Input
Amino acid sequence: MYKIILSFFITGSFLFASNHTQAQTQHQAGVRLGSIDQALSTGFTYRYFLNERTAVEGILNLRSNAIGVGALYERFNPIHAVEGLQWFYGAGAYVGFQGNNNLGVTGIAGMDYSFKEVPVNLSVDWKPELNIIDNVAFRASTVAVSVRFVFGKK
Output
């Protein structure tokens, strides 16, 4: 099951990226390090910008006994006082597989910085999760830092 889900996630990411190539396209891929062991607190992150202010992000969390996969729709707003700095917010859903399977919705809000001369992006965010299946549980304590390599031009 683990290999099927991982293959689906990777294949879907490449198909989605190849179907939306534009001059303004930007892809970001990297790691996410979170504070609490929730469905999507720590793992790999891939972000694709649909336009200047809108992106979709996929997060893959792999642990020895579990896997979590999620997708977020995000909106970005520049902070004009600092070039490359933005604040963002969004929402999405996730699914987790382990001893008990999880399904839920999640929000996200944070700060995002892209370096001008180096293809690196940093973000810090707060991402609460509301688990709906297997048990209803709200977890509001996840704070994470993501470091991503930037591909393409924005």
User: Anything to note?
Assistant: The first helix runs from residue 2 to 18.
